[in-house]
Write a structure and sequence with these properties.
The complex is a heterodimer of chains A (486) and B (315). By secondary structure, chain A is an alpha/beta fold. In chain A, 23% of the residues lie in helices and 34% in strands. Chain A folds into two domains: 336 residues, no CATH class; 57 residues, no CATH class. In chain A, the strands form two sheets. In chain A, strands 1, 4, 5, 7, 8, 10, 12, 14, 16, 18 and 20 form an eleven-stranded mixed β-sheet that branches. A ten-stranded mixed β-sheet of chain A has the order 3-2-6-9-11-13-15-17-19-21, with helices on one face. In chain A, a hairpin with a 2-residue loop joins strand 2 and strand 3. The longest helix of chain A has 20 residues. Chain A is globular. Helices cover 31% and strands 23% of the residues of chain B. Chain B is built from nine helices and twelve strands. In chain B, strands 6-9-10-3-11-12 form a six-stranded mixed β-sheet, with helices on both faces. Chain B has a four-stranded antiparallel β-sheet with strand order 2-1-4-5. In chain B, helix 5 crosses helix 6 and helix 6 runs parallel beside helix 7. The chains are: A alpha/beta (486), B alpha/beta (315). At the A-B interface, helix 9 and helix 10 of A face helix 3, strand 7, helix 4 and strand 8 of B. The complex binds adenosine-5'-diphosphate (ADP) and magnesium ion. The site of magnesium ion (MG) has 5 residues of chain B, from helix 2. Chain B: It comes from Daucus carota subsp. sativus. Chain B: Pfam families: ABC_tran. Chain B: Keywords: ATP-binding, Nucleotide-binding.
């Protein structure tokens, strides 16, 4: 096989965090008492007062904390002491402006939703699947229904998990240090850990629907930003299979809030996970989401993402290969119909032979101050021989000043690999438009169909057709105003 | 963009007075400059093959009308202004089958695409009148709805748009124009199923994206399926036979023949006699360097097959 080196290869410059300075100071032994943010202010010169302030309010927001989350909270707090709020000078945020969050008054959501607000979710669209309703990070059992799951499969709050063995196994995978500042903030602020556990060899036929609602939102004028920190861990044991649908929706009206979500995934030997992720937040919301995936040998992980909501939406995706012969498929579609930022930062790290990765990322920017950011990192390390990695990104800019920042970013150290990538920014293709016209379809209808079909290439990957139809009609509806202005 | 602006074309009275008056059966050559008089030569049933034109007179004695009249058509590539069509003349009556042959690069596909209004080309002179209307004034979609259909030599792939959605969109565009209620997907299925049989296409084909991953033969069948669904008074078939195996060629030709009526016409572009044996033309034209340099009957294609283009070349 050909030895390949691919351009553009970007090496991320180490970010300017002062973590080095702090690493010695705060290398606390495990189980040490939680760090004290007030004290930390003494080191104000080296800490970020804004980060400390959020961390502090998040800590204070917990009245009682489940004992099994204490360790996560402590370690997350610790790492926040040395973290600073990202600026445009930090490479991972070069194109993503988070000042919208920073300028707001951040208010942690410290209580589960009130019973009266739950009526809303009762009436909300039915789902035909076993489902968990998670409101502002809290599971609401009264409107959830997981009765359709096979024996041995668990979906719910960690505190309701009976088996100590499984509990311990799950907790082993909860990490306080995988991500960035937002990951750590989630670690401090998460009110609960939602667990999905699929035992060895168990194939779950129907998908599990996780419906995330944002209940507490503020008007734009208030300058307040309620923050919730949903946290999920999915563990599919050896040979198990499941489909997960993660759907995020805002409440009534275009409210301001911040969802800071973390999902950790472990796909065991030969196991399969299909992950549908639909982000349909309020257009005034901040939505920061982490998905961190560990793939053991011969496992398969597929992500189908459609993100259309949020004023600022960022998906950090990590895949770490921990065994050979893995299959990883990412199909993502981002749509900016107003002055939104849609950001995907993906990192696939291959350390074992014969991994296959397929990544397709598509964006449509339909607004002159809309923006898309894509940083697609693939690392094929020395041991990852015979890796087959493909990445393709295409962006459709429908307005003159719409912007996209693309950074395909392949680092290949192994010498026997097959890697390809392509990035294109395009307008609608004349030849395709003409094909419609030649069959009697007017230009505007043709444009609509082609714009929609651009995203359909990703939507087609949804394993569940009813979900696909639902997302399709939502995307169509969003595109209508921007289409009729053409 | 079209630089010509004809409001209402004058019917060629000379031609109508000659119609049906002459029949020919042999190879003949008309210098391009004198082409204006050519359409008066009408072929009836004198060709060895049965052609739809032969039944033109059975229509209550009503004489066939001119469907398409192209005069001194010149066109350039819009981007580079490179001249491609250098004075094309052609007249097609209702019910006639015409074939255009010619070397690669002689301008056959360009001619076909100019007829349907492709934006890559700019018409710099001459006229195209279709059913008495100036085609150059019409948008491509209106030309299609008016009854002009071109099957593309290389149909473009449209990922994300399923064949069935595309066909329904096109069919309903027509129905809207005709003031008819649009078809629902279910009504449309009922309408389309027999059409699938005509071109020997499996129903699951409808769920695939337009031309995406289709083999060469499937693309051609799909073009004919579109023709069968949408209907057309003049079908322009650009190398519908290229890349087809024997079975596919037979299916496709059968489908085209099945669609022909005494009033419908075909203009096909081909390199091979084989197709002409299935869909028998009244006229064969040879195109060279952007002009039709010869017109004749099937014998011209036979000569071509035997001796190559030098035998029919102008130079
Ligand atoms: N869109 C275009 N851009 C550039 N050159 C073109 C284009 N269309 C046609 N041509 C050129 O015009 C000439 C005639 O092409 P075409 O009509 O496709 O020939 P034919 O179908 O007879 O083989 C060729 O030299 C071809 O390269
Ligand atoms: Mg051609």
């Amino acid at each position: 096989m050909a030895v390949s080196t691919f351009t553009p290869i970007f090496h991320i410059t180490p970010n300017q965090s002062n973590s080095l300075l702090f690493s010695s100071k705060f290398k606390l032994p495990r189980n040490k008492i939680k760090p004290n943010f007030t004290k930390a202010r003494v080191f104000a010169a080296l800490s970020d007062p804004f980060v400390l302030q959020i961390a502090e309010t998040l800590e204070d927001s917990h009245s009682s904390s489940p004992p099994h989350l204490q360790k996560l909270r402590d370690f997350s707090s610790e790492s926040l002491l040395s973290a600073h709020w990202p600026s445009r000078k930090d490479e991972p945020f070069r194109f993503t402006d988070t000042s919208f969050i920073k300028k707001s008054q951040i208010v942690p959501i410290s209580t589960p939703p009130l019973p009266q607000s739950l009526n809303l979710f009762d009436d909300s669209e039915e789902t035909q699947f076993p489902n968990l309703v998670i409101v502002d990070g809290y599971i609401v059992d009264s409107v959830s229904n997981v009765s359709g799951l096979p024996d041995g499969v668990f979906a719910g709050s960690l505190s309701n998990l009976d088996s100590e063995v499984i509990k311990k196994r799950v907790l082993d995978f909860v990490s306080s240090s995988d991500g960035d500042l937002f990951w750590s903030l989630n670690g401090v602020g998460a009110p609960d850990l939602v667990v999905v556990y699929v035992p060895e060899g168990c194939v779950v036929e129907t998908p599990l629907h996780l419906r995330y609602f944002s209940d507490k939102g503020e008007e734009k004028e208030s300058n307040k930003l309620p923050v919730s920190n949903p946290r999920l861990l999915v563990l599919v044991e050896k040979g198990g299979e499941i489909g997960i649908i993660e759907e995020y929706v805002g409440g009534e009206g275009e409210k301001c809030y911040w969802t800071n979500s973390v999902m950790e995934v472990v796909v065991g030997d030969g196991a399969k996970l299909t992950h549908s992720y639909i982000q349909n937040q309020s257009l005034q919301a901040a939505h920061i989401k982490w998905t961190s995936v560990r793939q053991e040998s011969t496992s398969t992980y597929k992500l189908i993402e459609v993100s259309t909501g949020g004023k600022l939406s960022r998906h950090n995706f990590h895949m770490q290969q921990v065994g050979p012969d893995t299959v990883t498929e990412l199909s993502t579609f981002h749509l900016s119909i107003t002055d939104q930022t849609q950001d995907l930062h993906s990192k696939l790290i291959l350390d074992h032979p014969r991994g296959i990765t397929r990544q397709l990322h598509k964006c449509i920017i339909a607004h002159s101050s809309g923006q898309a950011v894509f940083d697609g990192n693939v690392q094929v390390n020395r041991e990852a021989q015979q890796t087959d990695a493909g990445q393709l990104t295409r962006t459709l800019l429908l307005e003159p000043r719409a912007t996209v920042n693309l950074k395909p970013n392949l680092q290949i150290i192994a010498d026997d690999v097959k890697c390809s990538h392509g990035a294109a920014i395009c307008d609608l293709e004349e030849n395709q438009l003409f094909y419609f016209q030649a069959r009697g379809i007017d230009l505007q209808t043709a444009r609509k169909a082609l714009i929609f079909s651009f995203g359909a290439e990703v939507l087609d990957h949804f394993p569940n057709k009813s979900i696909q139809k639902k997302v399709e009609s939502h995307v169509k509806q969003l595109l209508v105003p921007s289409l009729s202005s053409q | 963009m079209a630089v010509l602006n004809y409001s209402s074309p004058s019917p060629p009275s000379l031609i109508s007075s000659f119609k049906n008056s002459t029949s020919i059966s042999h190879l003949f050559t008309v210098p391009a400059t004198r082409r204006r008089s050519f359409p008066s030569f009408r072929i009836k049933s004198s060709l060895a093959v049965e052609s739809p034109a032969a039944s033109g007179t059975s229509n209550g004695g009503e004489s066939p009308k001119i469907l398409l009249q192209v005069k001194d058509l010149t066109a350039v590539i819009a981007q580079t202004e490179q001249p491609i069509l250098k004075g094309v003349n052609l007249c097609i009556y209702e019910g006639e089958v015409h074939a255009v042959m010619g070397k690669n690069g002689s301008g056959k596909s360009t001619f076909a695409k100019v007829l349907v209004g492709h934006k890559d080309y700019e018409v710099t002179g001459g006229s195209i009148v279709f059913k008495g209307e100036n085609l150059l004034d019409m948008e491509p979609e209106d030309r299609s709805i008016a009854g002009l259909f071109m099957s593309f030599q290389s149909p473009v792939e449209i990922p994300g748009v399923s064949n069935i959605d595309f066909l329904l969109m096109a069919y309903n565009a027509r129905r809207r124009k005709l003031g008819l209620p649009e078809y629902s997907p279910i009504e449309f299925y009922a309408y389309i199923m027999p059409k699938l049989e005509v071109v020997n296409i499996k129903p699951d084909f409808l769920n695939r994206n337009v031309n995406e991953g289709f083999s060469g033969g499937e693309k051609k069948r799909n073009e004919i399926l579109q023709l069968a669904v949408l209907g057309a008074e003049l079908s322009i078939l650009d190398e519908i036979d290229s890349g087809l195996d024997v079975d596919a060629l037979r299916d496709v030709s059968k489908a085209v023949n099945g669609l022909l009526t005494p009033r419908k016409s075909v203009l096909m572009i081909t390199h091979y006699l084989r197709l002409l044996e299935y869909i028998q033309p009244n006229y064969i034209h040879i195109m060279e360097d952007g002009k039709i340099i010869k017109t004749g009957d099937i014998s011209i294609a036979k000569l071509l097959e035997k001796e190559g283009y030098k035998a029919v070349s102008a130079t």
